[in-house]
Structure formats: C-alpha cells, structure tokens
From TrEMBL:
The chain crosses the membrane at residues 122-142, 154-173, 185-213. Keywords: Cell membrane, Glycoprotein, Ion channel, Ion transport, Ligand-gated ion channel, Membrane, Receptor, Transmembrane, Transmembrane helix, Transport. PANTHER family: IONOTROPIC RECEPTOR 20A-RELATED, IONOTROPIC RECEPTOR 60A. This is Lig_chan-Glu_bd domain-containing protein. Belongs to the glutamate-gated ion channel (TC 1.A.10.1) family. It is found in: Cell membrane. GO terms for molecular function: ligand-gated monoatomic ion channel activity. It comes from Nephila pilipes (Giant wood spider).
Amino acid sequence: MICSKLIRVATIATEGMVFNRMEDGTYNFSGVEGKYLDIILKALNLKYEMVLPEDKEGGRLLSNGNWSGMIGEITKGNADLAFNYLIVNEQRGKVVDFSTIYLTGDMAFAIQKPVAYPVSMAYIYPFDVTIWFLILALLFLMPLVFQAQFRTKYTYFNTLITFVGSLLGKSSFRDDGKLKHRMITYLWYFFGMILSFSYSAVLLSVLTVALQIPTVKNFEELAKAIEKK
C-alpha cells in the first residue's frame, strides 16, 4: 500500500501509453493505457512524478541479478509502481506484485501446411524405424535358436526362409512331436499372427487416410525445432 503523498510511476512510451508534460508539471495522457493510468492517478488524488527507464524496457533479469526497465526501477526503489503493458510471469512475480489481470492476449504462429507422406512408401509406415530394426533382428536371430534347439540338417538360409514364410502366413515347420519344440513353434506362430494383423490393420488405415508429415503444433515443439537448427 502506498502511504506517501507522492507516487512515482515507472512507464515507457508505447502506442497505448502516450503522455506529454504540461507547463504546470502535470501530464496529458492518451492511448488506452494512458487513459487508464490517468483515471487511477485522479482516483488516488496524490501528486505523482513519471519515472522513465533509460533502456525503455518492460523488465528482464540481467546476468548480474539486477532487473532492467520498469521492473528494475521498482526493485531499485526509484518507482512505487510500473504501469504499461507488462507480461505476468513467474520470474517477475518473485520481485514485484501484480494487479488483477485486466487484459489478455493470444500468441500464435503460422507454419507451412503439412503435406502427406508419399503413398508409394506406405508399406513401411505401419511401424517406426525402431520396430522395423527389432523385427529384422529377431527374424535373423530366431533361425539360430531353432537350429540349436531342433538340431536340424537344414542350413541357416533355409531356416530363415521358413521363418519369413511363417510371417506371411505359410506354415512350414515340421512337428517332431516334442513338447518343447511345439511350444517354441507355437510362440513364434502367435508372434507372427499378432505382427501380421497389426501390420495389415495399420497399412489399411494408412491407405484409407493418408498420413501427414509431423509439424510443429505448439510453442514447446517450436522451441525444440529452433534449437536443432
């Protein structure tokens, strides 16, 4: 609460804050913010003086821990209040008290409209790169496991072809009647069925509704995109 008979107001000249000093020492205010400040000063019915920051800034935290602009004039004790378009944020809120917010504004950015992925490459879209690498690694590793377990006379290449065929829905494993071998075979069939159904479902959706190349959707993603550049 301001108790002195003189109130010191920090502000800067903007489109909404226009003021001219009169011969009697008072100020003539115009603009939205200027008229608003004029009403407040008349309601307080106190003498006032204008404090104009040399840097003409709203206020930012400097590397030495001090504040610039209108916020800086308050923290230094040169002003009792700052009046202008001031953005309320957590950092400023630690050193000054803000009034009730009476004006809000929206910020937006425009980017190029996203384009669709080429349909000719739709067969690789159902899974991302990591999943494809895991599938290929498992596909090349499992023939070695089967050869070690079944001790078959087939070559690694023939076993690999058998695994590829099983993923495509062609059952070509021979049943030797052993429970352990059946369990491994059925687990692989189950994995192949889930993989095949998932791939087919996603591929169908991709062909029905074209995928669009991901674009920036919010300010957080925009900041990350700028950092990468």
